[in-house]
Every structure is written in C-alpha cells, then in structure tokens.
Amino acid sequence: MNFNRDFPRHVRIILTLLPLATVALGTGRCLPDPVCVATDITCNPAAFVLYQPVCAGEIQVVFRSNRDGNDEIYAGPPGDFRRLTDQAATDSQPEWTAGGAGVVFMSQRDGNNEIYRMDADGANPVRLTNLPALDITPAPSLLTGRILFTSQRDGNREIYVMDADGGNPTRLTNDAGDDDTPTWAQNDTRILFTSNRSGNDEIYSMNSDGSELVQLTDDPGSDKAPKWSAIRNQILFSSNRSGTSQVYAMNFEAGGEATALTDFAANQPVPAPCDRRLLVRSSADVDGLNPDLDDEILLVDPDTGENQNLSNDPGADAQPDWYGG
Ligand SMILES: [Ca+2]
Ligand SMILES: [Ca+2]
Ligand SMILES: [Ca+2]
Ligand SMILES: [Ca+2]
Asked: Was domain 55-323 assigned CATH 2.120.10.30?
C-alpha cells in the first residue's frame, strides 16, 4: 500500500517514535487492527500511526442551518459559507472527512433518516445506509474513514461502525437503553458515546470493538454529545448539571472532575484540531454578539475569554464541525 496514493492528499499520516506516541495516546497501547492494516504497518509498540491535522489556512466550518427555509448543510470559512445541499427534506449532522475531502451527514431526503456522504463542494451525494429504521449521527474516522453512527435497526438506539462506503455495518453496543452520538477518541483506540442506560444521559467510552465499557460521567444532569480533544487529551461534552446547558472538559477517568469551559448557555462542543479553542452552539447573547438570541455557532477561547460569532444569521445555525486554522 502506498501512502501517497491511498490517502487523500490533505491527510498526513505520520509515524512517530514511542516516546511521543506514548504521551499522545496516554496508554502506550498499539492501535487497533484496522489502522495497522490500512497503513500496511506491523502493529508493534515501537511504531504508532497518528492522524496529523491540517493546522494551516483558514478555519473551514461545516454546519446545519435553516437560513434558507429548511435544514441544509453549509460550509466554508466564516463569512464565506456556501450551501452544500438543496433538498426540501432535512439535511443535518455534518462532519468533515479527513482533511476536509468530503462531508458525511444525515438526511431525510429518501423518506427516513439515512446517512450520506458528499464531496466538500456538495457534489456526488451517496447514500451509505438504506433501512427503514433510523440511522443518524455519523462520525467518520480521520485515520481510516470508517464511520460510527447510531441506528435503531435492531429495535433501540445502538452504536454501529461501517466502512467509508457503507459496507460491513457492525453493532458495537447491545443495551436496552438509548446509545447515541458516537465519536472516535484517542486515535481510534476508544469510542465515546452518550447513553441513558443508567437512567439518565451519561458519557461512556469503549474500545473500538465495543469491549471495555467505562461510564465516565455520573451526574443527575443530562451529560451528552462527547468529543475528543487531541490537544487537551480530554473529553468535551454538554451538560445541564448546573441548571443550564454548558460545555465541560474532563479527563478519561470514571467519575473524574469536569471543568466548565463556558459561563453561558452552550452545547454541541467541537474542539479545535490544532489548539485549545472550541466551537459551540449558543443562543445566548455572549459579549453582545447575538442580540437576536437565535442559534449561532460561536468560536470560544476559554483561555482568553474571547468569543466570535461565526454564523451570524437570523436562522438557526447548529451542529458545527471544522478543520484547519
Ligand atoms: Ca434540506
Ligand atoms: Ca441501545
Ligand atoms: Ca448524567
Ligand atoms: Ca443564527
């Protein structure tokens, strides 16, 4: 397998030596088999394959907005967004594939919730699931392209993974509770997701094959929408534990302390690929940036307290993802 030929141009897969990789992974464990197979590298403790994000150029945001009358997907640098979908049905939950080569998203265009992929300019949409049951919240791996998603095909919400082309869907959870919003973490060695199996929404982690389940949060509030920050090696998530929905960061530690990153109502956090900032959805008038109190996408810097309104439109703007910057 040839690196230059078999990976998108913008994707830079690097090999690092053990000391750096041990720090980055925290555990020093070998990456799961799919990564080793995909890169034709013998998986051994002396070599790790890590995704190296693009940390140059303008921020490229992809998000959902109803600014043109119904839920569509938009993308681009702030101030220069273009619409990628144009369908009467709902199009939502977009996430970039590695290097911004494409967007994976959910759409109801064929009559029920299915998962699709399209090019970064909206061309060539392809349906990746095709079942009457609900298929939602896709999350593509930046290492392998494999897509985590939530499906109700087996009777209740469970976490599944499928190939980048929709092949080989495999169930990873099996619980009567609702299991939802999966995302890759720690270079694909772990998966984070939300579940109400204990009675209310909590954040869980598991290995990429569904083993070694760990309940990370334990709070009467609704804890949900986890994302992994590689820079922080922490989990960002939304919780209403303070009485209003805010964004928190916590370590990979069951029952670990969560630190609030926002002091205003916000949810749907997405960490920056290259620094400690994050995107959130907020309908608060933070710093006078959103006097209409509608849903906006804010760029938040918890270290400086500076915020920017990136969407800045009377429509409801939500579900951001980004790369670059
Ligand atoms: Ca639409
Ligand atoms: Ca379930
Ligand atoms: Ca909870
Ligand atoms: Ca708005």
From this structure: yes
